[in-house]
Amino acid sequence: MAIEGVDIIRSAAFLGAGFCMGLGAIGPGVGEGMAAAKACEAIGKNPKEAGLLTRTMLVGQAVTESTGIYSLVIALLLLFVV
Amino acid sequence: MAIEGVDIIRSAAFLGAGFCMGLGAIGPGVGEGMAAAKACEAIGKNPKEAGLLTRTMLVGQAVTESTGIYSLVIALLLLFVV
Amino acid sequence: MAIEGVDIIRSAAFLGAGFCMGLGAIGPGVGEGMAAAKACEAIGKNPKEAGLLTRTMLVGQAVTESTGIYSLVIALLLLFVV
Amino acid sequence: MAIEGVDIIRSAAFLGAGFCMGLGAIGPGVGEGMAAAKACEAIGKNPKEAGLLTRTMLVGQAVTESTGIYSLVIALLLLFVV
Amino acid sequence: MAIEGVDIIRSAAFLGAGFCMGLGAIGPGVGEGMAAAKACEAIGKNPKEAGLLTRTMLVGQAVTESTGIYSLVIALLLLFVV
Amino acid sequence: MAIEGVDIIRSAAFLGAGFCMGLGAIGPGVGEGMAAAKACEAIGKNPKEAGLLTRTMLVGQAVTESTGIYSLVIALLLLFVV
Amino acid sequence: MAIEGVDIIRSAAFLGAGFCMGLGAIGPGVGEGMAAAKACEAIGKNPKEAGLLTRTMLVGQAVTESTGIYSLVIALLLLFVV
Amino acid sequence: MAIEGVDIIRSAAFLGAGFCMGLGAIGPGVGEGMAAAKACEAIGKNPKEAGLLTRTMLVGQAVTESTGIYSLVIALLLLFVV
Amino acid sequence: MAIEGVDIIRSAAFLGAGFCMGLGAIGPGVGEGMAAAKACEAIGKNPKEAGLLTRTMLVGQAVTESTGIYSLVIALLLLFVV
Amino acid sequence: MAIEGVDIIRSAAFLGAGFCMGLGAIGPGVGEGMAAAKACEAIGKNPKEAGLLTRTMLVGQAVTESTGIYSLVIALLLLFVV
Amino acid sequence: MAIEGVDIIRSAAFLGAGFCMGLGAIGPGVGEGMAAAKACEAIGKNPKEAGLLTRTMLVGQAVTESTGIYSLVIALLLLFVV
Amino acid sequence: MAIEGVDIIRSAAFLGAGFCMGLGAIGPGVGEGMAAAKACEAIGKNPKEAGLLTRTMLVGQAVTESTGIYSLVIALLLLFVV
Amino acid sequence: MAIEGVDIIRSAAFLGAGFCMGLGAIGPGVGEGMAAAKACEAIGKNPKEAGLLTRTMLVGQAVTESTGIYSLVIALLLLFVV
Amino acid sequence: MAIEGVDIIRSAAFLGAGFCMGLGAIGPGVGEGMAAAKACEAIGKNPKEAGLLTRTMLVGQAVTESTGIYSLVIALLLLFVV
């Protein structure tokens, strides 16, 4: 009834999940913010192309989001599947 | 009645939750701030397109917010579900 | 009456709460400052749109604030609910 | 009369409070400084709008201050309530 | 029934998976965000070439994504195969 | 007469106080320096508004100072009240 | 049946694999993103040379990718061969 | 006559004092340097206002110095009062 | 059959290999990306010299790659020869 | 004659002194360098005001030096008085 | 047959070799990349001097490479000679 | 004849001396380099004032050097006096 | 035949050698790269002075190299003489 | 014949020497590189003053070198005198 191996495994998994999602949110957060900032700047200069620019921004952000989603997937796997 | 495995698991989960949300707030916070900054700059130059620019800013920030929300989800899961 | 499991859990929760809020205040603090800086710059150039720009700044900061509030929520949960 | 659990809890709470407020002062400090810097620059260029610009700066800084205040709240809770 | 070697191996694998994906998301996230930002800027200046620019952005982001995917692969291998 | 719990609590409080004030001085120090730098620049360009600019700089710095003062308060509480 | 040497070796290998791929993804991710960003900017200015520029970007990114692939190779060797 | 609690308390206080003053000198040092740099630049451009600019620089630096002095106070308290 | 010295040696070698390749990929990755970015920019301005510029870029990247290859060599030596 | 409390106190004081002065030299060193750099730049443009600019630089550096001197004071106190 | 001193020596040497080469690749990698980037930029502007510029770039990179080679030498000495 | 208190004190003093001088060389090194860089730039533009500029650079560097010398003093005190 | 003091001394020396050379390669690597980059830029603008510029670059890099060589010397002393 | 105090002292001295020289090479390396870079740029623009500029660069670098030499001195003292 003392500390067993499975407890240490789960502890490591939970710590790993926390750092995985925490660190993994830094890159996409900054990157998508840069995309949004430049899109606003471009629309301010050329508002007629707002639809085109919003679409480009969203496509670019969607790809950027991918590593954030990978982090989410790994964190969820560490929480539930393992 | 001494320290048991489940205590270590919960400790790891709580530490992980703290770092997950703490680190996960850095990226979106900086990124959304960049978007808001550029939107203000653009509206100052082209105030007639303020609605369009605010909408673009909010859409861009909403996507940027996503990794912050993922961090919140993982942190809540570490607190309550685990 | 020696150290028991619940003590370690609470210690981890309190350390986690401290780092969660401490780290989580960096990103929004820098981001909102960038928004405020650019809003002041824009109003200086185009003071007639001050109301519009202040509104945009506040909307942008409100979204940026969100990850800071998430950190507050997680920290409070670590302090009281857990 | 040796080290008991409550001592470890309080130690963790005090360390957490220190890091919470220490780290939490970095972001708002830098951010509000950026806002103040840009406000001075704008007033230098357009001194007639000094009242408007000071008001905008203060509003922007007030929002930026919020994450600093959250850190203060969490640190005080860690010191006194817990 | 105490802690055995396989438990330590799995703990290390889970911690490693967390850091692998967490750190591995920083670089591609920032890099892809830069690509998206510049694509928006370029489309705002030259909207007739939007298709060409979106294609270039996506090709560039796809290559940038590769190291993020490598991190995902290593993290999944650490979770399931090992 | 060996190490007791209250000693560990005070040790943690003193370490926490040191890091709290040390880290908490970084942000306001850099931020207020930026404000002072820009105020000097603006006064150099527009010396007739020196009073107005000094006032704005001081107001902006006063708000920026706040997180530094919060750190001082928490550090003093960790030293004396706890 | 307790912890043996081979368990510690494998633990170190798995932790090393995680950090190897995680850290090794930062550099190429940022670098390739810079290349993609500049390629988009150049195509926006000179769309007639889009093929040439895309080819140059891909060649440059392919070389940049190499250190990311080295990291992948070392991580895989740490997982399977060792 | 072995290690007692008061020794650990003083050790923590001395370590804390060292980090408090060491870290607390970074921010004001960089910030005041920025103010001095900009003041020199401004005086070079507008030497007739040298007195005004030096005064502004000193006022701005005095406020910036405050967090450095707070660090000194906390460090001295950790050394002597505690 | 317990932990012997050779196990600790191999563990250190594997951890060292991981950090060696992981850290060693950051510098060349960023550096080669800068070279590729500037080559794209230059070709966009002067497409007639594309061959010359691509050759220069590749030569420059090949030298930059060298420290990445050194890291690979050391990591492989740590894995297999030692 | 084994390790006693006063030994640990002195060890902590010496480590603290080292970090206090080491970290405390970073900020003023960088800040004063910025002031010196800008003073050289300004004198190069306006050599007639060299005396005035050198005086301003020295006054600004003297204030910047203060946090470095505080660090020296705390380090000396940790070495000799304590 | 337990852990002996020579095992600890070799472990330290291998860890040291890994960090030596890993950290030592960052500086030259970034520096050589900057040289290659500026050479590409200069050749794009002045392609007639391509030979001269490539030679200068290679000479500059060769000197920059030196610290990377020192790191390689120290790492190899740590692996084989020691 | 085993480890005594004075050994630990000296160990701490030597480690502290190493970090004190190592960290304390970063700030002045970078700061003086900035001053030298700007002095070269200014002399290139205005070579008639070379003597004046060299003198200003040396005065500025001498003040900047002070924190480096403080670090040297503390490190020497840690080595010999203590 | 167990672990003796000389083993710990050599382990510390080898670890110290690794970090000494690894960290010591960062500064000169980046600095020499900056010199090489600016030399290429200057030769591209003024190719007639290529010999003079290459000589200046080499002299400047030779001085910059010195701290890298100091690191090599200390690392070799830690490996062989100690 | 087991581990004695002098072994721990020497271990600390060797580790301290490694970090002292390793960290102490970063600042001067970067700073001298900046000086060399600006000198090359200035000579490219004004080659007639090459001798004057080289002399200024060398004087500036010599002062910058000082903190690197201090680090060397402390490291050598830690190796041989102590």
Automatic annotation (TrEMBL), chains A, B, C, D, E, F, G, H, I, J, K, L, M, N:
Residues 15-78 form the V-ATPase proteolipid subunit C-like domain. Signal peptide: none annotated. The record marks 65 as: Reversibly protonated during proton transport. It is found in: Cell membrane. GO terms for cellular component: plasma membrane; proton-transporting ATP synthase complex; proton-transporting two-sector ATPase complex, proton-transporting domain. Keywords: ATP synthesis, Cell membrane, CF(0), Hydrogen ion transport, Ion transport, Lipid-binding, Membrane, Transmembrane, Transmembrane helix, Transport. The chain crosses the membrane at residues 58-81. It is a multi-pass membrane protein. It comes from the Bacteria. CDD domains: ATP-synt_Fo_c. One of its GO terms (molecular function) is lipid binding. InterPro entries: ATP_synth_csu_bac/chlpt (IPR005953), ATP_synth_F0_csu (IPR000454), ATP_synth_F0_csu_sf (IPR038662), ATPase_proteolipid_c-like_dom (IPR002379), F/V-ATP_Csub_sf (IPR035921). Key component of the F(0) channel; it plays a direct role in translocation across the membrane. A homomeric c-ring of between 10-14 subunits forms the central stalk rotor element with the F(1) delta and epsilon subunits. Belongs to the ATPase C chain family. HAMAP family: ATP_synth_c_bact. This is ATP synthase subunit c. It comes from Desulfococcus multivorans DSM 2059. The gene is atpE.
